[in-house]
Structures are given as C-alpha cells and as structure tokens.
Amino acid sequence: MTKKPRAQLVAEIHGGFQRNSAISVLLSQTIADKVGIANTDLECMSFLEQEGPMTAGRLAELTGLTSGAVTRMIDRLEAGKYVRRRGDPKDRRRVMVELNPARMKEFERFYGPMAGESFALLDRYTDAQLELIAGLLAQMTEFGRRHAERIKALPNAPKRRIKLVDRKILGQNVRVEL
Q: Dihedral angle at the C-alpha atoms of 6, 10, 16, 19, nearest 10 degrees?
C-alpha cells in the first residue's frame, strides 16, 4: 500500500472535519424536526445529557445564546416536559435545569442505533489509536469554542435594506429590488 503524501492527508482530514460538521448539523435538524422541537433546544438537551444538570447561565455559555434566549428555550423545553427546573441543593438561590429521564426515552429510536454502530466502529481501533482520536476530538471541541468566541466578537455585516417596488416593464407587472 502506497503512503499518501502529508498534504493530501491533511486536506482529506480537513475536508472530513467540514463534512462531519455539516452532516452533524443536518442530523440534529432532522431529529429535532421529527420530535417537533427547535434544533437549538435539541442541542441544549445534548449539553445537559453530557454535563448533567446546570444553571441557565452555564447553558448560555455553552450554547452562545443570550440569557433571554436561554430562558425562553428552557420554558419551551419545560412546557414539553423535556427538562425541569429545581433548586440547587448547594445554593438555594440558584436554579438548576435537568433532563426529564422519562422523556429522554423517546430519543432512543434515533440515538440507540447510532450508539451501537459507533461502538462497533471504534472496536476496529487500538487503544493507542483511540487515545489519539479522543485527544483530537477534545482539541477540535476547544478549537470550535475558541473560534465561536472570536467570530462573536467580530462586527456584524451591515444590514442591507431591500426595497421591493412593483413596476410595469414592457407591459408586464414585475417586482423590482431597489
């Protein structure tokens, strides 16, 4: 087997990151659509599943949403009984948000087959390779967070005002953008 040049491998990995990211977004949106919730709500539940109960402030940090947007999201998820609010046993002034395990069973039909297949896929790798992959994923997660913060700090593009005007051109009614 011929060894691929480093530049080709780097290009393949970089392209793989981009494709994986795009597919991940599409997969999340597909599941959110099936359940009838917003994609950001599904991602919020993913953070709660990975990290356990947390404050609304922590959810805002993780999602990059404003505190108002996170409050509305929690309200929606609580109304759907996906999450519940409870007092923090360590500090009664704080409110923690946690998943409702009974509702999480609904997601088994989506994530169960993926978990099984991913374990089978990872069985192909040695422990040393798994350590390398785990390290890379941790670095890529930090990379994504760091660049999300950098991009948030950039100025927004100027809003373009579009004015649509109905005109008659050559006897036809058309809508013209000015």
A: -140
